[in-house]
Design brief:
Shape: elongated
Order of helices and strands: HHHHHHHHHHHHH
Structural class: mainly alpha
Radius of gyration: 22 Å
Number of domains: 2
Distance between the termini: 68 Å
Number of strands: 0
Strand content: under 5%
Helix content: over 70%
Largest sheet: none
């Protein structure tokens, strides 16, 4: 008899669905819904909670690709052990509270959201349970190890669903009549997924990117074309000052847009110098 999978109790499915819900809200410029999703994520996936620990067990399996069979089997073993150490009654209670908040603040239809790797998440959920027959467990674990050893897909969006990023990119292109560079795509990817880790990776990338932009603008402002145009040089100086302030500023849509525009400016300056 096939085990019935309850997606509402699948921690990773709910988390991935929340990420896509947040991304969709950003695309639609729906600030209220984005903040609602963010509030739910911050409330229920705080460090040291059962849900956060459970999510890390899932992630250690579905985020690992193109690794050896030996390493995949070791990670699988450790993930199962870590999952068993989580208090099941406490986890069930936290899942129930999360489900209730989603139903109340978002919508019961949330659980019908499409998540591309749903089949893998369902398999992991069953592997973590104690309801599988030995044969079913071996088959699911073998298939999962095969997935973990498979080469990662060539995708600029990393963990972000390519459709989500492409939609965001298209809207930006329509508004500003330009094509996003690789740096701009990376920035958007980190921004869309910043809800997952309290913006840790976004801040790390942004610090490096701000340093690169500031350096390029500083060098460019010393060139002859800037010296001959005081207005252009003054604007470049203001941009550099603004970039410096962003290091101590909370990252919001305004900051994101300014950095995207600066990236475009730097790309034009670089191409101009190359030509």
């Amino acid at each position: 008899m096939k085990n019935r999978h309850n997606k509402k109790r699948n921690t990773a499915f709910i988390f991935e669905s929340l990420m896509r819900e947040a991304a969709a809200a950003i695309i639609k410029a729906d600030e209220d819904r984005k903040n609602t999703v963010l509030k739910i994520v911050k409330k229920h996936f705080k460090p040291d909670t059962g849900l956060k620990k459970h999510l890390e067990c899932y992630k250690s399996l579905y985020e690992n690709q193109d690794i050896s069979i030996e390493l995949s089997e070791k990670i699988l073993k450790e993930a199962k052990m870590a999952s068993r150490l989580i208090d099941p009654h406490g986890l069930f209670k936290q899942q129930t509270e999360l489900i209730n908040d989603i139903n109340k603040d978002l919508s019961p239809s949330f659980f019908n959201n499409f998540v591309p790797n749903y089949k893998t998440l369902a398999s992991i959920d069953q592997i973590f349970s104690d309801k599988l027959t030995p044969k079913s467990r071996v088959m699911l674990e073998t298939a999962l190890v095969e997935d973990m050893t498979r080469p990662a897909p060539k995708d600029d969006t990393d963990s972000v669903d390519s459709i989500v990023l492409r939609t965001f990119t298209d809207k930006f292109n329509e508004k500003y009549a330009t094509t996003l560079s690789e740096e701009q795509k990376h920035l958007l990817s980190y921004y869309i997924t910043s809800f997952a880790d309290n913006s840790v990776e976004l801040k790390m990338f942004l610090n490096e990117e701000l340093a690169r932009l500031k350096s390029t603008l500083t060098v460019a402002s010393s060139e002859e074309v800037f010296k001959e145009d005081s207005d252009m040089k003054q604007k470049a100086t203001k941009i550099i000052e603004k970039l410096d302030k962003f290091r101590q500023t909370e990252i919001d849509e305004e900051v994101l847009l300014t950095v995207l525009k600066t990236q475009e400016l730097v790309k034009e300056l670089t191409n101009g110098s190359n030509n």
